[in-house]
Amino acid sequence: MQSNDGVELYYEEYGAGEPLILLHGFGGSSLDWAPLAAEWAADFHVIVPDLRGHGRSANPLGTFRHDQAAGDIRLLLDRLGVTAFKGLGVSGGGNVLLHLATRHPGRVRAMVLVSATSHFPDQARPIMRNYTFDLLSPEEQEKMRRRHPGGQPQIDRIFAQARAFADSYDDLNFTPRELAGITARTLIIQGDRDPFYPVQISVDMAAAIPQSSLWIVPGSGHGPIGGARWPEFTKTARAFLQ
To answer: Which of 36, 38, 153, 205 measures 20 to 30 Å from 231, CA to CA?
Structure first.
């Protein structure tokens, strides 16, 4: 699918139930959801895109804003004839869902936000400013290579975009009043040792969003749903979205 500004968006579909969109985190791709998409296709019409510039989606602009990515997803859903949907997003994918839920509250019925944020806090900005591919473990580097067929040039652009977040103040700037306009049932999940976002941000978002629940995962950092936590997360998220 091509967006209004020339972004070629790659996506996959599974199942034929209620529409559910799965949004990967910044630096990830639709491959992150492969096992879950196949499993949940029994209950949902699962839509799994690569966000602009990630995986097999192009991004000729060379920049990344969550509000623009939300526009891509809205257009994709329009073209698929999906008027109302549920969503699950991790980190950047959760931030995209926040844009969709505040701009188009009638369309988002329920959503699970993992390590999302209402704004980039001061503690995150030095980490973003110094974020490079070399900081990843060899295993994480190989995972990125598998997810991005454009190779190192594509990966380098993603890291440059992540560093640019350090000076971004208008893309993510949700006020309590804006969050209060969200009508979707919302489950917010965050690790209590997230180096980017203090727990208070999630607490404040849960207080502002009318139909919200909060799950703080002890002893966990950013994106606290992998490894041993995965079965508990998928069971909890599936039950909430159903």
So the answer is: 205
Please write the tens of the pLDDT for every residue from 89-117: 999 999 999 999 999 999 999 999 999 99
Could you confirm whether domain 11-241 is CATH 3.40.50.1820? yes
- Tell me the backbone φ, ψ of residue 121, rounded to 5 degrees: -80, 165
Sheet arrangement for strand 185-191: 11-14, 44-49, 18-23, 85-90, 108-114, 185-191, 212-217
Concatenating the DSSP letter of every residue in 47-64 gives: EEEPPTTSTT---TT---
Give whole-number Cα distances, 59 to 56, 151, 155, 240, in Å: 10, 14, 12, 33
Query: How far is 23 from 145, CA to CA, in rounded Å?
Result: 19
Do the Cβ atoms of 118 and 212 come closer than 8 Å?
A: no
**pLDDT tens track for 156-214:** 999 999 999 999 999 999 999 999 999 999 999 999 999 999 999 999 999 999 999 99
